[in-house]
Each structure stands twice: as C-alpha cells, then as structure tokens.
Design a protein that fits this description.
3-stranded antiparallel beta sheet; 16 helices; about 10% strand; globular; alpha+beta
C-alpha cells in the first residue's frame, strides 16, 4: 500500500491496570495497541477506560449522560472554561454563540498572515541547519496564531507561553501529577494572575474601543446573547489552557513520526497536495488529548456491563482511532485514505471548537517546512520522548538535523 508504514509489531502482554504501566514515553504505538487489545470498557486504576470506536462514540455523543461538567469540576482556574466545562443546555448556548467565529469562513482569511509567520520561522531555522522543533516551532507558532485571531501583537507570544505553562503546571499539581515547592507554586501563581490581569485589561479595552477581531465581536453581542466579562475571561483562558497546548503537542508528535519514517516524509515532499490528508492521519495516530474524561450522571451500562452514576470514564481516542471499525489497517500510517473518521477532535456537542484553526496551523507548518527543508531526521544521540500530563501527550523535545546525511531514528 503506497504511503503506508506499519507501527511496531504486536507481542503478547499482560493485562493493563493503569495507563502509567504503558510505554507511552518511548513506544506509544505499542502502548495504545496494548490498551486497545483488551477491548471495550476496561477497568483501570483511574476509572473505566472506553477503548473501542463504537464505545467512544456512544460516550461522547451523550453529553447529559456522560458529563463533561462533572469531570472538569475539579479544574480550578477561577473562571468558567467556556464551553469545555459545561453540559447542555448551557453548553448548547455557548456553542451556538461561538461556532460562527470559528467556522472555515472566519478562519480562512487568517491563512495569508499565518503562512507568512510560518515561512519566517522555517527560513530562520533552515539557515541554522538544525533545530529543537518543540521550542522553535511547535510552541511559538500556535501562540502567534492565537494572538493573530485575537488581534494582539505577536510580541506578546513569549510571555503568553510562560503564563500558559504556569497555569497548566498548577492544574497538574492540583491533580497530583506534578509536585511543586512552595517557591515554585508561588511563582506560577504570580504568572497565572498576570495572565488573568492581561486578559481582564484587554476585555475592558475592547469593550470601550472595539476592533475587527473575534474578541471584539464576541464582546459586542447584546440582548440574550450578551457575554459577561467573567464569561469572556473563561473563554480566553480556554483558548490558552486547552487550545495552545493541544496544537503544540499535535505538531510535535506528527513531526516526530515524519522524521522517523522517511517514506512518509518523502511523500509530502513529492506531493504537497497530500498534506491535508496527512494532517488527518497524523492526528488519528497521535491525538494530543488521548483520552477525554467524563462522569456518568446516572446509572447506565457500557458493553453490556452496569455502570453506576458518578463513575469516572475516560474515552480513549488513541485506541478508538486504531480500531478497525474506525478505518481499515488502522495500525498503519497511510496518507491515501479516502475516509478518516477519527475522533481526535472529539465528537458530538463537545467537538473541538478550534478544529478548523488547528488543521490550518498544522497544514501550514507541514507545507512550508517540506517545501524548504525536504531532508531532515532526528539528531543522533538526542532523546525524543513523549510526555503524558494533564490528559495531554506531546514531545518533551525533538532535535532535528537537516540535510542529505540525516539518518532516521527509531519509530514512536
């Protein structure tokens, strides 16, 4: 099959009791295959894992039965994460108000400005001959894209990144995934408050002097559609906390797969028209949010087994996407699929609001990168490990060397 690359060959494994047991950092293909091989709904230490394509669709398409609001109730940001942390009917209202501002029609006009930003980034790296892709591309560009969407200066990119990291680390500490000293916690609190102050000042300014950006238009809604300053603050924090990290992670995971598989890289160089399909396939194999948390709002059943109200559910997109029910030869990377119904942007009421912008960002990076740097590989002797934290997965670092002499490293 042209363009198809198999993942690591399966082997016999003991049953999985926790995601922490899986080799996610070094061999995530093997990790997700092992979990998916157990089939259906799997009891794990952190709740019930729904791993199959049909089961994940069933969970995500019943937002009042499988509650996102209850799952995100423990995420303390000081403001409501809109619309992520709500269930219908509140979520339905927010979705109705926000959807027009994130449609392809509204996102497409950003393409020229975003493409120019990518070209500037890649050209600078090309002159260097090497890069650390996460910090040089995957972190700054999504931040610049958000600033462009909100009509803010690109010079704010660095401090917005610092604030975002601080907020995410506080969230990770609250969930027990990260330990911070008193000094570290205090510094991150200070940075998170600085971010809140930045957006509070921005909201006040845009209410007084509207521009032609998305934020100004949202603030201009009136009547029953009017959003309070608190609601708009929650929306801004959702953009930063939920939006930036996922695109950064998706770019880094996708580029690692391309760097480790020169066959795939060469396909994009030879035929740039494959990039949109490649984005979908790379997202299918590596969803940056590999599982979505939900809590059952009432007694129900999954795969014929009773599940009481209040049960913590994780809908595993990483395994659903590798289910043969999702697509044929699901363990293989294939940029020639005619259909790709992956779940990486979620499904139903909570389907990712920023999916069109995320797709555009990934397409622009892969197009301009492969046009300018057609030969690259993971730098020998450098680590390329994934990190699973806050239910997100991304590369800790990804050192790349350019040129004909670059040799591929081990596959993910």
């Amino acid at each position: 099959m042209s363009g198809s690359v198999p993942t690591t060959a399966p082997d016999a494994q003991e049953p999985v009791h926790s995601v922490a047991e899986l080799p996610v950092a070094e061999r995530r293909d093997e990790a997700w295959r092992r979990l998916g091989a157990q089939g259906g709904a799997v009891p794990l230490a952190d709740g019930l894992a729904v791993t199959g394509f049909a089961g994940v669709k069933a969970v995500l398409r019943e937002p009042n039965l499988f509650s996102a609001q209850q799952a995100f109730a423990t995420v303390e940001t000081g403001y409501p994460l809109i619309p992520l942390a709500f269930d219908p009917p509140e979520q339905t209202r927010y979705r109705r108000l926000l959807q027009p501002y994130f449609s392809p029609r509204r996102i497409r006009p950003l393409e020229a400005a975003l493409r120019a930003q990518v070209v500037d980034i890649v050209e600078e790296l090309k002159a260097r001959g090497s890069c650390e892709f996460v910090q040089d591309v995957a972190v700054p560009f999504p931040t610049q894209a958000l600033l462009t969407l909100l009509g803010l200066p690109l010079e704010d990119s660095a401090r917005l990144t610092v604030w975002k990291d601080a907020a995410l680390e506080l969230t990770a500490e609250a969930s027990g995934e990260l330990q911070l000293s008193d000094e570290e916690r205090s510094l991150r609190m200070e940075r998170t408050l600085a971010m809140a102050g930045y957006f509070s000042e921005l909201i006040g300014e845009r209410r007084r002097h509207p521009g032609d950006d998305v934020l100004s238009e949202l603030l201009s809604l009136d009547g029953d559609d009017r959003l309070s300053d608190e609601e708009v603050m929650g929306l801004c924090l959702m953009f930063v906390v939920a939006g930036l990290e996922t695109v950064t992670d998706a770019l880094s995971l996708g580029m690692e797969r391309l760097a480790a598989h020169p066959e795939l890289r060469r396909e994009l160089v030879a035929d740039p028209s494959l990039v949109p399909a490649a984005v979908e396939e790379l997202l299918r194999l590596d969803p940056p949010a590999p599982f979505l948390p939900r809590v059952t709002a009432e007694d129900t059943e999954l795969d014929g087994c009773p599940v009481p109200a209040g049960t913590w559910i994780n809908a595993h997109l990483s395994t659903a996407n590798r289910d043969e029910e999702c697509c044929p030869h699901a363990q293989r990377a294939d940029f020639h699929r005619t259909e790709n119904p992956h779940t990486s942007f979620g499904l139903g009421a909570h389907r990712c609001l920023g999916a069109h912008l995320a797709r555009l960002e990934m397409q622009l990076v892969y197009e301009e990168w492969h046009r300018r740097i057609p030969q690259y590989a993971i730098t020998p002797g450098t680590e390329h490990r994934a990190r699973l934290l806050r239910a997100n997965i991304g590369m800790e670092s990804l050192h790349l060397t350019f040129g004909a002499d670059a040799q591929p490293a081990s596959a993910p």
